[in-house]
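TL;DR need structure tokens for one chain.
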Amino acid sequence: MTSRFPKLTETFVLYEILGLERSGVEVEFYPLLRERAGVVHPEAVPVVERAHFLPFLSWPILLSQLHFLRRRPRSYLGALGALLQGTWGSVNYLIGGIGIFPKVAHAARELEEKGVVHVHCHFSSHPAVAGFLIHRLTGIPYSFTAQGSDLHVDRHMLSEKVAEAAFVVAISAYNRDLILRECGDRWRDKIVVIHSGIESDFFKARANRRPDGPFRILCIGTLHEVKGQTYLIDACRLLSEAGVDFTCQLVGEGKDRAALERQIADVGLEGLVRLEGQRTRGEVAELLRAADVLVAPSVPTKQGKREGIPIVLMEALATGVPVLASDISGIPELVEDGRTGLLAPPRDPVALARALRRLHDEPKLRRQLGLAGREKVVREFDAHANAGRLASQIAIRSTRRD
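>> reply
TL;DR here they are.
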């Protein structure tokens, strides 16, 4: 189960499904919402076609409520009561939980009839609530993955989800430690670190020869505050003032597009910094092969949002492209400063410009970082290998409640 699908920026969900199936697991896919995306990765289309998209209410969904009220009234009312109690105080979780409750109860009935033996939920927010409810209604064990802002912004009901889960996946040691601080050290053995990953055989190492032309900076991500593009634009202004010959491409869409366009115009960087819009996975791979550096200037927001470990960093390193990223959250677990990439403090355009100038001036360093980065991604962040680890956890830890 996941929040939305197909979401262009959440390729890790797609990779996980494909990796589980490659490991021999038969997957039934239940997104809570259908994303109406203008651009969809071609690899996601077959998954979309067989996904179970449920409406919020329908006659079959109403009949499923009667099914549980008639056969398991204590489980049904107990699950609803636990939802209300656990989400009280969080408008987002309370309203969202009530909204999805009928369709989740219907999904629980379907999963039981299909003989599903385990439910895995990607995100510790509403998908984990769904897993919790399905477990309460049917006894089917569940687990969930805590990724990024789903864990950092609002942790209502997190302790209840962890307590009833068969196990919990943290995508970084940083997230694991945060969960333990919130829920208690007694759950240490239940929480496992399994990195999100990419298909490292798709993002192949490029040739070392650099094409002629300006220094090419690439930044890929949704155009909103947590991605920190505004600080990269400021860093580009500093590079321009220093006389560095460069181009910078911002790939993605989002609510901050207009503000970023104004900023680019205000600092006189039209033509040097370009907004490229959304791109498919294949197009991203082409852009990476032509880039000199991939920058992920992530920042924590006032609302508490922060990234986990951006997938695009893995994609860049797998291609052999050196990366520059913010020193926050789980990012240093992938980007080891000076070894597999460079780190800079968040919200620091001067530090970003200094690091970019260093990469511009030291092609040997770029090659070294790219080579070491690819080795680390293949070793620790391969989607199929990590999906196999998830499948092993499901096999080991899942025991259905009688």
